[in-house]
Amino acid sequence: MDITLVQGDITEQRVDAVVNAANSSLMGGGGVDGAVHRAGGPEILEECRRLRDTSHPHGLPAGDAVATTAGRMPATWVIHTVGPVYSTSEDRSCILASCYRRSLEVADGLNAASVAFPAVSAGVYGWPMDSAAEIAVRSVQEASNTVSEVRFVLFSPDVYAAFARALG
Ligand code: ADP
């Protein structure tokens, strides 16, 4: 698996699937979530609503992932994953690792060869960026599946630098 780092906007990536740092409601939000729905258009929210009405009546739990269309974005699919909110009293690293693992499993099921990830939980959910980067890189390196390219798309130079350190 080829792992690359890009500083930029995840909604502009020409990959098979872009990962959204969603929240459990699947009904949209700020940060990556807001950008994905703005760029992809209303089709994404319609599919999210359908998932809520059928397979996920209680929302999507942290650490899990589901796919929808990418609407108007260059990608074909959006894989929505819900990161854990950072906690100083409880180690939630396993949940964050699960976001990457489950997203890649979903990508595998779609036969997606290239997947772009944002820094899940490193925004509003407050995860310290060096730790978020280490967990992201390790989880992807340890995953066994047929995805051939993982692209981490980092919005800001400091998060990009954290991922570059984690990748060595
Ligand atoms: P979470 O709620 O999981 O913390 P956020 O969306 O708040 O997710 O932030 C996750 C990371 O994604 C942050 O580093 C944020 O700066 C970054 N980010 C925000 N918008 C974009 C975008 N359009 N493309 C890539 N990364 C983005």
Automatic annotation (TrEMBL):
GO MF annotation list: O-acetyl-ADP-ribose deacetylase activity
The record's listing under PROSITE patterns reads: MACRO
What is an example of a Pfam family matching this protein? Answer: Macro
Q: Which domain of life is it from?
A: Bacteria
Please give the name of this protein.
O-acetyl-ADP-ribose deacetylase
For this protein, the record's InterPro entries field holds:
Macro_dom, Macro_dom-like
Checking SMART domains in the record gives: A1pp
Q: Which NCBIfam families match?
A: PRK00431.1-6 (NF001664)
Q: Print the keywords alphabetically.
A: Hydrolase
Q: Which residues form the Macro domain?
A: 1-168
Q: What is its EC number?
A: 3.1.1.106
